[in-house]
Structure formats: structure tokens, C-alpha cells
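Homework-ish question, so no full write-ups if that breaks the rules, but can someone show me the predicted structure for this set?
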Amino acid sequence: MAGTYTVGAAAAASGWSARMLRYLEQQGLVVPRRSATCYRIYGLGELNQLRSLKQLRRQYELELDDVAFAARLRREPDLKAALDGWLAASADSGSWIDWEQRKHERLLAA
Amino acid sequence: MAGTYTVGAAAAASGWSARMLRYLEQQGLVVPRRSATCYRIYGLGELNQLRSLKQLRRQYELELDDVAFAARLRREPDLKAALDGWLAASADSGSWIDWEQRKHERLLAA
DNA sequence: ACAACCTTTACACAAATGTGGTAATGTTGT
DNA sequence: ACAACATTACCACATTTGTGTAAAGGTTGT
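A: Not a homework solution, just the prediction itself:
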């Protein structure tokens, strides 16, 4: 069918190896649908994902890990909030005292 | 002085090893100031950073890497924007065609 | 039917992470 | 002065990441 690729074809068209396409799927970064016989089927959307992922990686020297972690941040808003809080407080060291102070006050008020 | 700790004291007070405190500094996660003789000086702010980093890590099973990457995302808004774009388009596979279309239009307009 | 694909599973390996040591040397508090 | 700290610079090691390759077998197009 036009615009559908098996793993080898998608590899050739995207610049990744077939091996890496399977790895990317395992990491949850680019997950193709499957044919009735379990063949991986990549469409145009996945092709674009693959191409731009490759460029992102080169341009910013990212690990795949980092991209997977960014995906996790979107899936887990608590985690993102907790990390943002830590980073914000770290950026402004003085704020830690306030933060602890407020925590202390919360405990007293309870 | 009250509220200031050398690396060993900070380690004892935070639950990290002195070795790890040096490693955290090297990764840019918790960077103490230095005395005139280059001793690391941790204040209350850093102590709180260390304690809450430890808890963050346990609670969400984070790698230090991941925290360092989250810090990078705040420092590099382009990177964050690029990643968010990729993730948003990946979440909604159909949008890739539009995204490529818009990129094409941007290039033509330039 | 046969070549050329695909599947999963596994072994292999270099590089990086996270963590602990040690050694040689400088600093500090009593 | 001396014990108990600190510094940097290494070595070591298990685990993870990213990547290739191979085996044993199923699918597909001609």
C-alpha cells in the first residue's frame, strides 16, 4: 500500500537501522501498528516522527533516554511539578529557607 | 559557623556520601560555594536541596541524569520547545502532516 | 517453490552512570 | 604538632544505553 512501510523499508526511508527501529519501539518512542501477522507497519506519520527524531537528536545532542524522559514528564504531571519545584528552588537558593519555613508553619497549623 | 557544613558534615546531615556530593557537584545539580582554601561549603539551602533531591529520586525512581536533563530543559528553551513539539505531534500522529506542511510554508515565507 | 523479507531471542561490545575505593597532598582546630 | 578533616586524581566495578550480528523460524510476492 502507498505510504506504508515494513521495518526494512522504514529503516531505508528514515536513516535508522531496522535494529534501532525495534529499539525505539521498545523504548516507546515510535510505536508502529502491526499487521495481522505481527509485521511492523510504519505510516507517513511514523516516518516523520523518525526523521525529526533523528534531527532533534543530532541538533541538540540528545540521548534517546532524554527524549523518553521528556515523554515521561508529559505523562506524569506530579513528577513534572515536583521536579519543577526542586529546580525553581535550586535556581534561587534563598527560597529553600522560605520553603522549609512554610512547611514548618503548615505542620504547626495542622 | 552555624548552618555551614564541609563536605563530610553535609554528607552526614543529608544522607549522601561525601563521594556522591562531589559527583552531584560535577553534574551541576548541587553546587556549594567554596572557602578561600577551596573547601566545599554547604549552607542550609544546599542541605535542603540535597535532602529533597534524595527524596525526589526515591519517590519517582529518577536517575540523576534525568534531573540534570530537566535542568537543561529550563536552561534551553529552544530545546524544550523542540521536544514539546515532537512529543505533541507524536501524541497525535495525524498532526505530523500538518506540522511538515507548516515547516514547508515557513521555509517558503523566509 | 524460492528468495527475500519479517518475527523473537540472544550474545557481544563500547561508552556512560553511579558508586566505592586509594594515594598524595593541603587545611584546621585544639 | 598532631589527628581529623579537606582537596584532586586516579582505579575499579556493576549496570544501563546504543548498536551490531546471528540463529531459528514464519510470511510474502512472483
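Now go work out the reasoning yourself. Hint: Residues 7-73 of chain A form a domain with the Multidrug-efflux Transporter Regulator; Chain: A; Domain 2 fold (CATH 1.10.1660.10).
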